[in-house]
Automatic annotation (TrEMBL), chains A, B, C:
Similarity field: Belongs to the Thz kinase family.
InterPro entries in the record: Hyethyz_kinase, Ribokinase-like
Database matches in Gene3D superfamilies: 3.40.1190.20
Lineage: Bacteria, Bacillati, Bacillota, Bacilli, Lactobacillales
EC assignment: 2.7.1.50
Name assigned to this protein: Hydroxyethylthiazole kinase
The species this protein was found in: Lentilactobacillus farraginis DSM 18382 = JCM 14108
GO BP term (any one): thiamine biosynthetic process
Gene: thiM
Keyword Secreted: no
Keyword annotations of the record: ATP-binding, Kinase, Magnesium, Metal-binding, Nucleotide-binding, Thiamine biosynthesis, Transferase
């Protein structure tokens, strides 16, 4: 695993264009800014091409879109494919809401994305595997998570990150499992969105998206683990600011020391 | 007062659908997630029915809506009434802006809601009682707050929570006053919105909305008081994260110890 | 410099109407509320006139607008000019996106504003001076920042605040430079938006906008410096909440003690 991509990210300071979820946008912007990227957000079609051209990557969070925003999302994805800028997609709640699942599958069928990052309920829904998602939460299912993630990666020819207690990263063949975890991630609603946007930062500086996704997941998970270990009790509200603190402070050496994957 | 509804909430982990105020949505989502509910947000009409069906309750914050969002709000309220899901309404600034007052009264006249939660200026405006509200703040008036809240409860056949230095909860006949308070609530713009959404969580697990609203107010107020007491000076910015910390940490015993109501 | 305008602000508690950037709106609302103003936000045209009439000032953040929001922004600016309410404009990323630059120049050509606050890349773009902006960041250029800011002030007959390592405030003739700084401002995406809205608060209580802008900048910069000095390492995520803490705690004496300008 190329953990020193973290240094590359900070040297290159990539512009990370985010079509964001309005629920978590502030923390996401601060998180990736603290990490070392330069976030920019937009909801306007007329600047879509300019945004894509200046960006090193595009992260599209489908956490709370309207039909109108969907038009802008399609436009941005079209330009991203045209200008060969990698796209990360976060398919929030597609496991729970049929409308979201349909729109998301339509987008993924038409455009080429670099990485899909969701919880296992969302990954299963897109892969067409039975799973009982619960709202924005993963819920429970009986299928094998690794096979489910691989199925989705092969369906859309992209890297898939299925995050949860263990994070699974696959390009459809090879699989990396990351075991760094903290219960605090579930207590903080920005965790998933911030992880997706962190992957967006790394695919902006590394063309091997499978490598980029691995580094992003390990950096993010270790940062969260470091924060959680420093707390004597679970501080659900303080976790967010302290995670952003750590995304700035963490270095390659710390990530290498704590990284737990196979 | 059924303070152990807090345990029920955490056991049932209700899905709390929030049509939120974009100003405070991130803290509201984190607050109710920390408390023990599962928040989900949406602004799209096409998924309104699916959202209502999966949700245990709906909280509608009228803090910053547009005409377009109003259509979605009406659709959501219609489905909520159809599927018998309780609605909590937060009528932000209806005391200061005639347009908001009119739209809000129209909604309340057409749909059945479980609880209205506002400051006394907002409650007075909806009740048709003279009051000088100031922007998003309560302002000052000479009418009796308890009678004003009862008038509104009877007008729309629902529970009314008029929050302020003393919080008043009424079903139009019975009245509970909660005295737990902190000046920090006024320094934190998310306080009112988060209280409304907390009430939303409790009406999702308790069919007696008057009981649910009481528990919600006491849990929320005690949590804020505990945080405020732990500070040696008023930390307006740190209060938000620490309130979210406490909404997760607080238990029935602590609420019972500090609860101050009659 | 009239540093005691801070006391005036807290006595008068002005209503600060903000058309905000959805990325940072929560922190901006909390920041100006903590400082001593009463924030109110709206995106709806139908309440534009009521909002402007009740407000003491209007801050318009062009950080992430859509064509639709632009209609509302124009309406608000028209009413603000009609009712003689001062407008502060924050032209986010006009140095990087041609579409934003054009829309912003159109607005500024048609309406009279009190203050423009941007980084030097944004100020240069509006002034028509060559500069290499980088996304939302200032980037680098070879022109003289003071002359660039003066040029813009004379172009639109308003006060210009060009913020950066040194903050420049000019009415087109006189120039004040503020040297209070902290690297943490760059690590926190809300810094610029919050500074613009802080200026909005002060122009709501002081008709001499050049004086109001100076006080706003010095109060804000000193608050940030006080927070930064209290940290043993740069906490990118904790800086936001602590800056809001300090905006409430800071007093005229502290600002006078640390203010560093000429």
């Amino acid at each position: 695993m190329k953990i020193d991509l973290l240094d590359t990210l900070r040297e290159k300071n990539p512009i990370a264009f985010n079509i964001s979820n309005f629920v978590t946008v502030q923390d996401v912007a601060n998180g990736i800014n603290a990490l070392g990227a330069s976030p920019i957000m937009s909801e306007e079609q007329n600047e879509a091409e300019a945004m894509v051209k200046m960006a090193n990557s595009i992260t599209i969070n489908l956490g709370a879109f309207t039909e109108q925003q969907l038009n802008q999302i399609e436009t941005v994805m079209t330009f991203a494919n045209q200008y060969h800028k990698p796209i990360v997609v976060d398919p929030v709640a597609v496991g729970a809401v049929q409308y979201r699942l349909e729109r998301c599958n339509e987008l993924l069928a038409q455009k080429q994305v670099a990485v899909i990052r969701g919880n296992i309920g969302e990954v299963a829904a897109l892969a067409g595997v039975d799973w009982n998602a619960k709202g924005i939460d993963a819920g429970e299912g009986s299928s094998d998570p690794v096979e489910t993630a691989k199925k989705l990666a092969n369906k859309y020819h992209c890297v898939v990150v299925a995050s949860g207690k263990t994070d699974i990263i696959t390009n459809g063949e090879a699989v990396i499992r990351v075991f760094n975890e903290s219960d605090l991630f579930k207590l903080y609603v920005g965790s998933g969105d911030m992880l997706s946007s962190t992957i967006g930062c790394f695919v902006g500086v590394e063309e091997d998206y499978f490598e980029a996704a691995q580094t992003a997941v390990v950096v993010f998970d270790v940062a969260g683990e470091v924060v959680a270990k420093s707390m004597s009790k679970p501080l659900a509200g303080s976790f967010g600011p302290q995670l952003i603190d750590e995304l700035h402070l963490i270095d390659v050496k710390t990530v290498e020391k704590y990284a737990n994957f196979e």
